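Slide 14.
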Amino acid sequence: MVEKKGTALLMVFVDIDSEHDADFNAWYNDEHIGDLLKFPGFLNAARYQALKGGPRYLAMYELESVGALQSEEYLDFRRNPSEWTQRIALSTKGRNLSRIVCTQIYPKENDSHVLGRGMAPAIQVGRMEVPAEIEAKYNEYYDNVRTPANLELSGCIAVRRYHAVEGGPKYTTVYEFEHETVPESQAWRTRSAQDGMHDYIGGTYGHAPGSPGVYRRIFPSRTF
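Slide 15: predicted structure.
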């Protein structure tokens, strides 16, 4: 079995002005993702477009570990960008650019039966900053109450949680869905209304701008 899930993610969020949109999408699909997947430790990748929240575009890479970003092959690639990469120049042509490298904290280990699973057709990404005084209760509730309850809902494939080691905010939760309509279902809304996180942790946490975002996979393409 070819492993497609690792213990870390690289996520790049960005908004692109309309005049650069076609070139940006062609660059990502025809060159950039393929280049990255050649490097050791890069297991899989997909691109998503926001239907709710933002930024508009998200590129997500499954990494064997955060060490994948320290290989000499990858570092040399970063030092010597292609002409197309230089023309795209996300740091100047992109808006609301956010690059997050994060390591998985839940589940502690990926079950063997999910390691071959491809990139989800749709995802929900929450990026949260949690005050230190409520972190312990936040993590306890998320892992033992919220996540198990959400995994029982139809269409919710998986939930994984991460700590940022580059970029931020500190916590990221990725829900994998069969379809982007899952968080609009009555069952999901009922479950969300019943959630007692804030009462349990005795405080509040903040979301990054555009979080939580619901994203539809645009590359590889979908048939539904």
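Speaker note: The radius of gyration is 18 Å.
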